[in-house]
Every structure is written in structure tokens, then in C-alpha cells.
């Protein structure tokens, strides 16, 4: 068992995060950086990683030609009091367009090391012009938190000596940021603080646009970091739980262009490196935490309304939001090089949603079942030198969350599933392009407090979270298909005294399996505390299909 040394300043910071009140139940799910392993200066830094398939340079390409875009150290960057000190979220922007949203690993005395890679091919239009790189990392350095992050940002370019066959689908000709302008003492994302908050930016679209896709970046923090565990307000009020965030467990990011809801994001439940029990995420970090997923919304059917040369309002809101959500987007535009003006019209549009909460509780025990659904679909045509092309985009979401408190509120079980389908098809009589995406995000979270003696208690946690995704597309260039199953199953326990964690353990098992027309990759990896127990990976398409089930290895 390990112990920790601390300073009065640390205790003060922890007090902000873990209120000392008469063992307030239910508890929050965020714990600050734990230092549970003994310090040994001769040990090498720990390397953290997020399991993902390696990025493959295109077949037949040469390179890389690499350029160091930025090399910097991040010390004190927070403009606000340190209440959100542990949400070390960061973003990378190029000319205002976000390229990466990520979360830092939690430091250890002997140092930590990690790297994140992202395929930036779709941003080719931005990379071909001079631009301004911005990185914002919220960090605090004081007498306790002495960690400084040294970061390098490197661009690797690969080139084709001849035109590949078949030619790849072209990327956008222009990318317009829907974010806040520099200079700021903050990230370029919009910060959404409550359910009435709508953040927006006005933009004019070039009059020869024939296709438009919004790529949305989303992350949730502070009171909404664990939004899917939040109980309804009536439960909080009835039990006088002033420190528990509420507004229920359903959240939806709504994307509007002028007055129309053009699409929604029902985000994957990313758990950052300090969430639930920090030892679960060392060194295998939570799915999506180093490379947060982004969400595409095709707004081509609305182009007819947007190409009048005037500015239009692109806005974001979050249903039931509590402080705080960071949201921005990149608008990818395809331009008709053979004409100055395209024309278009919206033919049909439909956006409906429903949400329902079934609430039963008595004292601190209760059961809340929340269901919600959303459908958006739009069809419109655009006439350009490519002809008169009809585009249909749709999204269909369903959501179910069950949140059960038992044993006088000392145990909480959340079981949630988000099911998101979307698709786009374009025709000019014959089908030109057809894409379908089906994502399912299951989540299970158990949190139990026990062995309460005075101001000491034990906290046991178990989590299962996964991304299951199927993509298919068909175009003149050919067909592609992929299937991803990426599941983590983690559990751990901690002993907490007052508001200090005195000991703990955690283990995680992740099974990643990708099968696609562009290749295969599988990995089966497990960790206990800071140590990798086993790690098998395979990129052959035959053997890769034999990954074992997601059980814990016997200990
Ligand atoms: C993890 O480390 C803690 C002490 O830091 C120890 O008590 C526990 O047994 C370890 N757990 C495992 C699974 O090795
Ligand atoms: C520190 O780490 C080194 C290298 O791993 C090891 O040889 C040494 O025994 C460790 N010292 C302590 C006090 O654990
Ligand atoms: C950043 O790049 C410089 C120059 O290549 C190198 O000396 C330094 O170690 C790198 N730092 C990190 C954190 O990788
Ligand atoms: C909540 O606080 C109010 C006023 O302070 C008090 O009347 C009520 O009994 C409290 N309820 C519970 C469940 O503690
Ligand atoms: C339930 O918890 C509350 C608050 O911690 C406490 O006041 C109450 O006595 C507990 N009830 C039971 C039956 O243990
Ligand atoms: C979670 O809910 C799903 C569907 O509602 C159900 O199939 C599954 O068994 C539940 N899991 C747990 C652990 O309760």
C-alpha cells in the first residue's frame, strides 16, 4: 500500500472538489490526481496511451516530410479560480478551425509521456495556406501543482508521385471555422453554461458552394462532466443535496443554422483521466479521452437558403446543460470551380424530438428512467456544373438511461445506451453517393460507498463503456465498409479519509476490433494499477477476427 504526502494547499484544492459535508451522498465522480505509487527518481516516465488503430499513410505514397509546427511549455494558463483545475482539456486550432480536442494524462512524480496522432487529410485546404496555429491547455502551476507540460506539435506530410487509382473522394476546398476569434486568454471553443445559452457565429458562404458538412467538436466539464449520472432536480431538492449536479441525465447538443435545427450530437460519454477512479486509466486511458470523437452533420440540403451572399447564423445549444460545455465546429465547403454561382432549394425538412423521465424515489433511494428520441431529415437540391443534384441527410437517435440509487443513496448504478444512425445520399437520377453510419454507445457505471467509519469510507467503482460503429459508403469510386467494436471494462476501489484518497487500486481491460475494406486491426490489452498485464495486437484480417471476449483476466 502506498501513502501520499501533501501540503495544506493541496488539501484546500481537494476541499473544493470533494466537499467535506456530513458524508454527502450520492458522491461526485471526479477525483484529483492520485499519487499512489512511491516516488523513484530513477524510473523512466510512464507512457500513457489510448488504444486506437495506427494511422496508415496512403498506399504508394512517399514520405513523411515532417515539420515541427510548435514546441512549447504550458505552465499557468487558467484565467479563472482553480475550481476546474483538473479538467486539463486542450485544443489545437489552425486558422481558427479545430484540429484536435484532447485531455492530458495525470502527472506522476517521475514524469509522464504520451502522444496523440490524428489524420488531418480532410483539412488539406487549410494546410495549403499560411495560417495561425493556436494551442490552449488549461493548466495551473503553484506550490503544489508544479507540473509543466512540454509539448511538440508535428505535421507529417505524405505525397503521391502519381495520381492514385481509384482517385480518393475530394476533400473540402474551403474550411470555415465556427469558433471564437483570437486573441483570447482562453480556448477558441464556445463555452455553454446552461440550457438557455446559445452560442453562435455569423458567416457568409461562397456563392459557388455545392456541398457543405459541419464537423462538430464537443466536450463536457465541471457540473456536466458526468451528465449521464445526474439525478433530476426534484431528487436533489427533496434531499437537500447542494453539492450534487442535477438537470437529469439527458443531454443533446443542438446545431442550428438560422432558425432551423440542422442536426444534433448525442455525444459519446468520454471519461477523462481523473474520472471515477484515476487508477482505472493508467496507463490505458479512457476511450476517446486523448482524441475526442467529432460528429459530422451534412447541411447541403440547406444550401439553397444560405447562398444569398448574406451572413447566416450558426449556433449551438445543449438541452438541460449545466456549466460547462466546450463546443465549436469546422464548416467544410466544396466549391464549384467552373461556375461563379450555384443555385439550390430546400425541398423537405423535418425535425422532431421527444424525451420522457420516469421518476420514483423515497429519501435517497430512487429509480429514474429517462428515454429520448430525435429525428432530423432534410432534402434539397443544388445545381452546379456537376448538374442538378438532390441530397438527403438524416439522423435518428434513441437514448435510454436508467439511474438507480440504493442502500440509502450509497450505491448508484447507471445503465445507458445511445443509438445514433445517420446517412446521406445524393442523386441526379442515378445514385452518386450513399453513406450510412450506425453508432451505439453503451455505458454501465457502478459506484458504491461502504465501510464508513468516522470520516473514512471506501469507494468501489466498475465501468463498462464502448463504441460500436458500422460505416458503409458507396460512390463512383467504389464501396467501403468498416465495423468497429471498442470496449473497456474497468473496476477499482479507493479508500478515502476526509477528502484525501489514502490507497487504491484499479484495473482495465480493453478489446478493440476493427474490420474494414481498408484493413483490419485488433488489440486486446489489460492493465492493473500502472502495469500492463498483457497486450496482444494484430493487423491481419484473418486472425484479427478471433479476439477473445471482454472478460477480466483472472487475478
Ligand atoms: C494496486 O496498488 C495498491 C497500492 O497502491 C495495492 O494495494 C493493490 O494491491 C494493487 N492492486 C493490484 C491489483 O495490483
Ligand atoms: C528504483 O527504480 C530502479 C530502476 O527500476 C530500481 O533498480 C530501484 O531498485 C528502485 N528503487 C526503489 C527504492 O524502489
Ligand atoms: C520536442 O522537439 C525537440 C526538438 O526535436 C526535442 O529536443 C524535444 O525533446 C521534444 N520534446 C518533446 C516533449 O517531445
Ligand atoms: C431540507 O432542508 C429543509 C430546510 O432547511 C428542512 O426543512 C428539511 O427537513 C430538509 N430535508 C431533508 C430531507 O433533510
Ligand atoms: C440515510 O442517509 C442520511 C444522510 O446521510 C442519514 O441522515 C440517514 O440517517 C440515513 N438513513 C438510514 C436508514 O441509514
Ligand atoms: C443495461 O440495459 C440494457 C438494455 O436496456 C440491458 O440489456 C443490460 O442488461 C443492462 N445492463 C446492466 C448491467 O444492467
What does this protein look like?
Helices cover 4% and strands 52% of the residues. With 555 residues, it is mainly beta. It has one domain (5-538). It has a ten-stranded antiparallel beta sheet with strand order 17-18-19-20-21-22-23-24-25-26. The chain is globular and about 75 Å long. The two termini are 18 Å apart. Residues 1-25, 77-85 and 544-555 have low confidence and may be disordered. The structure holds 2-acetamido-2-deoxy-beta-D-glucopyranose (NAG) (6 copies).
Helices and strands in order:
Elements: H1 8-17, E1 46-47, E2 61-74, E3 89-94, E4 97-103, E5 112-113, H2 124-127, E6 133-137, E7 149-160, E8 174-178, E9 190-192, E10 199-204, E11 209-220, H3 233-238, E12 252-257, E13 260-265, E14 294-298, H4 303-306, E15 311-319, E16 325-335, E17 343-362, E18 365-384, E19 387-406, E20 411-427, E21 431-453, E22 456-475, E23 478-497, E24 500-516, E25 519-528, E26 531-538
The structure holds 2-acetamido-2-deoxy-beta-D-glucopyranose (NAG) (6 copies).
Could you give a short description of this structure?
The chain has 555 residues and is mainly β. The chain is built from four helices and 26 strands. Helices cover 4% and strands 52% of the residues.
Amino acid at each position: 500500500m502506498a501513502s501520499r504526502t501533501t501540503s495544506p494547499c493541496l488539501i484546500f484544492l481537494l476541499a473544493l472538489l470533494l466537499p467535506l459535508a456530513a458524508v454527502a451522498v450520492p458522491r461526485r465522480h471526479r477525483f484529483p490526481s492520485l499519487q499512489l505509487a512511491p516516488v523513484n527518481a530513477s524510473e523512466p516516465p510512464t507512457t500513457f496511451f489510448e488504444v486506437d488503430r495506427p494511422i496508415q499513410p496512403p498506399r504508394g505514397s512517399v514520405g513523411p516530410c515532417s515539420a515541427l509546427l510548435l514546441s512549447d511549455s504550458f505552465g499557468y494558463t487558467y484565467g479563472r479560480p482553480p475550481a476546474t483545475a483538473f479538467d486539463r482539456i486542450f485544443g489545437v486550432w489552425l486558422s481558427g478551425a479545430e484540429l484536435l480536442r484532447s485531455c492530458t494524462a495525470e502527472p506522476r512524480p517521475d514524469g509522464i509521456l504520451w502522444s496523440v496522432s490524428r489524420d488531418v487529410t480532410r483539412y488539406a485546404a487549410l494546410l495549403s495556406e499560411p495560417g495561425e496555429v493556436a494551442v490552449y491547455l488549461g493548466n495551473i502551476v503553484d506550490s503544489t501543482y508544479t507540473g509543466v507540460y512540454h509539448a511538440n506539435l508535428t505535421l507529417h506530410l505524405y505525397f503521391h508521385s502519381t495520381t492514385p487509382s481509384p482517385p480518393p473522394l475530394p476533400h473540402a476546398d474551403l474550411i470555415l471555422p465556427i469558433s471564437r476569434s483570437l486573441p483570447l486568454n482562453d480556448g477558441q471553443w464556445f463555452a455553454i453554461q446552461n440550457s438557455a445559452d446559445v452560442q453562435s457565429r455569423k458567416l457568409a458562404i461562397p456563392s459557388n458552394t455545392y456541398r457543405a458538412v459541419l464537423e462538430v467538436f464537443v466536450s463536457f466539464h465541471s457540473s456536466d462532466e458526468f451528465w449521464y449520472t445526474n439525478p433530476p432536480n426534484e431528487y436533489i431538492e427533496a434531499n437537500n443535496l447542494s453539492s450534487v449536479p442535477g438537470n437529469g441525465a439527458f443531454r443533446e447538443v443542438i446545431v442550428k443554422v438560422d432558425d432551423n435545427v440542422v442536426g444534433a450530437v448525442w455525444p459519446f460519454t468520454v471519461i477523462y483521466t481523473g474520472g471515477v477512479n484515476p487508477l482505472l486509466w493508467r496507463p490505458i486511458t479512457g476511450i476517446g479521452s486523448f482524441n475526442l470523437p467529432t460528429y459530422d452533420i451534412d447541411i447541403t440540403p440547406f444550401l439553397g437558403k444560405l447562398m444569398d451572399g448574406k451572413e447566416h447564423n450558426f449556433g449551438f445549444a445543449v438541452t438541460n446543460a449545466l456549466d460547462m460545455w466546450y463546443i465549436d465546429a469546422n464548416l467544410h465547403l466544396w466549391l464549384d470551380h467552373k461556375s461563379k454561382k450555384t443555385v439550390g432549394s430546400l425541398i423537405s425538412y423535418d425535425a422532431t424530438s421527444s424525451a420522457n423521465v420516469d421518476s420514483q424515489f423515497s429519501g435517497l433511494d430512487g429509480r429514474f428512467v429517462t428515454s429520448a428520441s430525435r429525428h432530423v431529415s432534410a432534402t434539397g437540391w443544388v445545381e452546379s456544373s456537376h448538374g442538378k443534384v438532390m441530397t438527403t441527410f438524416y439522423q435518428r437517435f434513441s437514448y435510454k438511461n436508467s439511474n438507480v440509487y440504493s442502500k440509502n443513496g450509497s450505491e448508484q448504478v447507471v445503465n445507458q445506451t445511445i443509438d445514433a444512425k445517420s446517412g446521406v445520399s445524393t442523386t441526379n437520377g442515378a445514385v452518386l453517393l450513399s453513406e450510412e453510419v450506425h453508432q451505439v454507445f453503451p455505458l454501465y457505471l457502478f459506484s458504491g460507498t461502504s465501510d464508513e467509519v468516522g470520516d473514512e469510507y471506501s469507494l468501489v467503482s466498475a465501468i463498462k463503456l464502448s463504441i460500436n460503429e458500422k460505416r458503409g459508403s458507396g460512390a463512383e469510386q467504389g464501396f467501403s465498409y468498416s465495423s468497429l467494436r471498442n470496449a473497456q471494462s474497468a473496476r477499482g476501489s479507493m479508500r478515502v479519509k476526509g477528502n484525501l484518497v489514502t490507497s487504491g487500486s484499479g484495473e482495465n481491460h480493453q478489446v478493440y476490433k476493427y474490420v474494414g475494406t481498408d484493413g483490419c486491426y485488433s488489440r486486446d490489452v489489460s492493465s492493473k494499477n500502472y502495469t500492463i498485464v498483457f497486450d496482444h495486437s494484430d493487423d491481419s484480417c484473418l486472425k484479427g477476427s478471433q479476439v477473445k471476449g471482454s472478460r477480466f483476466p483472472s487475478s
